[in-house]
Every structure is written in structure tokens, then in C-alpha cells.
């Protein structure tokens, strides 16, 4: 059975899973078959479009990122192999594949019992984030119970955080009734929620650094297509500092500039196609709520986080953080992690921060710099365990690397603390992680509308400041 599941996940991508789930949800809401089919097809086309553009863009930008790192002369023992390689490790472990079955039942049950507002099975692929932590726990403790236990608990924490973030993400990225669920890419939002009122006290919401203001101030130079060009040229120059006198260097620099500009220009059009998929279910849910004379349930369909990658503020923040995180890796005392492949995942990693700050690039870059720097230490601590797990499933180390890690997946301070509690095998520490979850969940369940309204008001402060100037 596990082999069959693995073959399914190896064969079908999010562009297949999401349309199927969307069609099922649409029929459950009594949407006509034609509309349900069209919605599902729009979702599949949109996700495929996101994948095609990112698969074309990644090889172009990855070359200059690797050159930039090489030019710094950094030599750290823990090599970042990226989230793609990490997902392969997760799906190659037996305990990980066992959890897929558990996750499908758990996530579906929680949604239909109304214990969560997010329908997670539509993004089953991203369960690998739980599976990595569970596999490392099992490796260290040799306990199947602890390995599965941490995956279940992380899943519960992830759903809770997703529920909190869902409305804000859906509103900002303009995808009705949809949100991201990936454990590794929602975690930074915790730090963002803590820091936002602090940044506002310091007046950072008055720093008008967002795509709308840049376009207003700079005219055509501030349009996303122009910003993409300048941002790409900047990154290309950083990667070719030692060869700026050569024609080939400027060929690469301009290529990165045009490619980044293309992402900025094309991505919103694909996003528009993808958003059309959710209009029928949003209308149907509202109609059913009116008929039943009950308040409409606020629920969200989990979607792949590629849906937000190329949004202007997201891509700008992510690219600006690339050289910053290389610098932090160089100067942080005790850090042994060399972020490489997952630097390209930074636009995935900042989406929660962007949504919470309503596109405030200044806040996002500051939050990202602090939180992702702490994440480097968690990568350093867990690198040995992950390297061992990867070795057991046949993953070979890159040349010159002593250890491997994933900056995106394992560089998560909060999830890392839960991991430390479980590998301690101390009932008190493990029990504490469960108690904290229960307290947070009860508080959320009783005050969910207040929390969501608060986050919306905090986000509005950024946009209101822009409009008032």
C-alpha cells in the first residue's frame, strides 16, 4: 500500500490533486457539473502556469546565486540541498509514507467536524514537511510512537496557524476561499504577528515601500515590469562582481533582469486565471448560507504556495533577502549552514509576512532577516540528523559537503523547539508542547473572528498610511 501511495505522489502533481479536490468540493456544494468542471480546469491550468514559469525562471536565477556565494568564499560544513531534495528524502522513509495515510484521515475529519476551517487534503504534497521532522525523531529515538506523534502535533499546529492566517492571505493575494498550508512557509508568520505592533510603534508602517507606492512615485519605472528588470539586474551584478569587464557577464546580468521582469509581468495574468477557479464555490457557499438563515462558515481550500511566488511585493522581498541571508551566514557566530538552493525559495517563505503587513517590503525584509537568521542555527543543529536520514534512503552528499540540510524546511525555530522536546523523550517537555497547543487552540476557537479582524486592522495601517500621503 505504501508503495502504491508513493507511486501516486511521484506521478501526480498539485496541478492534478487540486482540480480533483476542487471538483469534489464544488459538487458537494451542489454546483452544476459544467461549472464545477470549468473551475477545476481553471485551477489546473493556473497551477501548471505557475509551475512552467517558475521552472523556467529558477535555472536562470540559480546560476547567479551560486556565483554570488562562490565569490564570497564561504566554506561552511552544512550544505543546503533545497526543499526538492528534502521532499524526496521524506517520501522515501517508511514512517513518512505511513503518515500520509494518517494525515489524509486526520485532515479530512478535522475539517468536516469543523475543528479547522482549512481543507488540507487538496495540498497533500506538502505533508513532506511533517514527514521530515517525524523521520528524524524516529531515527534518534527509535520510537514509532514519538515519530508519528510529532507529525500529528505539527499538523495540528500547522492547521491552527493556517486558520489564523487564511483570511489575510486570501485577501492580500486575491484568491477567494483559498490559503497556503505548507508547514515550512507559514511558520514565519508567527514572528510577523509578534513583531508587527512593535514595528508600528517604531513607525515602520509609515515607510511607504510597497509596489503601489513605488509605481505612484516612480511612474513607469515603478511598474512591476520595470521593478523586476532593476531587481534582476541588481542580483545579476552581485553574482558577477568579479567579471563585470566581460561580455558574458553582462549577457547573464541582462538575462536575469529580463527574466525577473517577465515573472513580474506574466505572473499576475496566471494568478487571474487561477482565481477564477474559486468564484463558483464562493458564490455557492454564500447562497447556501442565505438559504439556511445561518452565518456563513468561513472556510478555505489549501493551495500550493507557488500561487503567491511572483506577486510583486513577495518576489521583491524574497530577492532582496537573498544577498542579505548570504551575508548573515557569513557573519553569524557559530553558524555552520551554507544556504544555497533554498535561497530561491525565499519568495515562498515570506508570503505570510507579506500578507500580514499588506505588502510592506520594509517590514518583511526586517522580519525575514531576523527570523531566517535564527533558522540558520536550527539548520546547523539538525544537519547531522537529517544527513543520517538522507544517507539511509540513498541520498549522496554533494562534493565537498560534510553535512546536508534544507534552509527552507529545517530552518524553522518554533517547529525545531517541538522537535527538541520530542527527541528529549521527556514526558514533561513533550506534554508541554501539547498543553501549549491546546491553550492556543481554545483561545483561537473562542476568538477567531476577533483575531482575524485584528490582523486585518493591523494590515490596513500600512495601506491607510500610503493613501493618506
UniProtKB/TrEMBL annotation:
List cellular component terms (GO).
plasma membrane
Name a single GO biological process.
Answer: phosphoenolpyruvate-dependent sugar phosphotransferase system
Pfam families this protein is in? EIIC-GAT
InterPro entries, from UniProt? EIIC-GAT, PTS_sugar-sp_permease
Topology in the membrane? Multi-pass membrane protein
| UniProt entry tagged with the keyword Transmembrane | yes
Locations listed in the record: Cell membrane
Q: What is its main location?
A: membrane
Q: Any keyword Phosphoprotein?
A: no
* Keyword tags: Cell membrane, Membrane, Phosphotransferase system, Sugar transport, Transmembrane, Transmembrane helix, Transport
The GO terms describing molecular function are:
galactitol transmembrane transporter activity
Q: Where are the transmembrane segments?
A: 12-29, 36-57, 96-115, 136-160, 220-238, 258-281, 313-332, 364-383, 389-410, 417-444
Tree of life domain: Bacteria
Which PANTHER family does this one have? Answer: PTS SYSTEM GALACTITOL-SPECIFIC EIIC COMPONENT (PTHR37324)
Task: Report what the protein is called.
Answer: PTS transporter subunit IIC
The record lists the lineage as: Bacteria, Bacillati, Bacillota, Bacilli, Lactobacillales
Amino acid at each position: 500500500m505504501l508503495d502504491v501511495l508513493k507511486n501516486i505522489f511521484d506521478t501526480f502533481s498539485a496541478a492534478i490533486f487540486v482540480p480533483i479536490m476542487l471538483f469534489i468540493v464544488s459538487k458537494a456544494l451542489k454546483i452544476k457539473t459544467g461549472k464545477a468542471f470549468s473551475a477545476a480546469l481553471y485551477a489546473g491550468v493556473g497551477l501548471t502556469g505557475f509551475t512552467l514559469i517558475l521552472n523556467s525562471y529558477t535555472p536562470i536565477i540559480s546560476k547567479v546565486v551560486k556565483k554570488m556565494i562562490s565569490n564570497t568564499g564561504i566554506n561552511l560544513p552544512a550544505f543546503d540541498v533545497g526543499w526538492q531534495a528534502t521532499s524526496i528524502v521524506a517520501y522515501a522513509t517508511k514512517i513518512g509514507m505511513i503518515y500520509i495515510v494518517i494525515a489524509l484521515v486526520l485532515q479530512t475529519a478535522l475539517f468536516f467536524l469543523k475543528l479547522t476551517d482549512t481543507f488540507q487534503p487538496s495540498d497533500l504534497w506538502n505533508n513532506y514537511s511533517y514527514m521530515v521532522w517525524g523521520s528524524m525523531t524516529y531515527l534518534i529515538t527509535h520510537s514509532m510512537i514519538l515519530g508519528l506523534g510529532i507529525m500529528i502535533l505539527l499538523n495540528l499546529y500547522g492547521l491552527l496557524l493556517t486558520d489564523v492566517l487564511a483570511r489575510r492571505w486570501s485577501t492580500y493575494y486575491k484568491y477567494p476561499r483559498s490559503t497556503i498550508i505548507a508547514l515550512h512557509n507559514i511558520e514565519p508568520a508567527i514572528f510577523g504577528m509578534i513583531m508587527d505592533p512593535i514595528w508600528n510603534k517604531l513607525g515602520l508602517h509609515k515607510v511607504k515601500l510597497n509596489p503601489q507606492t513605488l509605481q505612484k512615485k516612480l511612474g513607469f519605472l515603478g511598474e512591476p515590469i520595470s521593478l523586476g528588470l532593476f531587481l534582476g539586474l541588481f542580483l545579476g551584478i552581485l553574482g558577477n562582481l568579479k567579471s563585470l569587464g566581460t561580455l558574458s557577464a553582462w549577457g547573464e546580468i541582462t538575462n536575469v533582469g529580463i527574466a525577473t521582469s517577465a515573472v513580474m509581468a506574466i505572473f499576475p495574468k496566471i494568478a487571474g486565471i487561477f482565481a477564477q477557479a474559486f468564484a463558483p464555490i464562493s458564490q455557492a457557499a454564500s447562497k447556501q448560507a442565505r438559504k439556511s438563515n445561518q452565518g456563513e462558515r468561513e472556510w478555505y481550500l489549501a493551495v500550493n504556495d507557488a500561487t503567491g511566488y511572483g506577486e510583486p511585493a513577495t518576489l521583491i522581498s524574497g530577492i532582496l533577502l537573498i544577498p542579505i541571508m548570504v551575508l548573515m551566514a557569513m557573519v553569524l557566530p557559530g553558524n555552520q549552514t551554507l544556504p544555497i538552493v533554498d535561497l530561491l525559495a525565499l519568495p515562498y517563505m515570506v508570503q505570510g509576512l507579506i500578507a500580514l503587513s499588506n505588502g510592506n517590503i520594509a517590514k518583511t525584509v526586517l522580519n525575514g532577516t531576523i527570523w531566517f537568521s535564527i533558522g540558520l542555527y536550527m539548520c546547523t543543529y539538525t544537519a547531522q540528523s537529517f544527513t543520517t536520514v538522507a544517507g539511509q534512503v540513498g541520498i549522496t552528499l554533494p562534493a565537498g559537503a560534510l553535512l546536508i540540510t534544507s534552509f527552507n524546511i529545517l530552518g524553522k525555530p518554533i517547529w525545531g523547539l517541538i522537535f527538541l522536546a520530542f527527541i528529549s523523550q521527556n514526558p514533561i517537555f513533550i506534554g508541554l508542547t501539547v498543553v501549549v497547543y491546546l491553550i492556543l487552540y481554545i483561545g483561537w476557537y473562542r476568538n477567531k473572528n476577533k483575531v482575524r479582524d485584528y490582523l486585518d486592522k493591523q494590515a490596513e495601517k500600512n495601506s491607510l498610511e500610503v493613501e493618506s500621503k
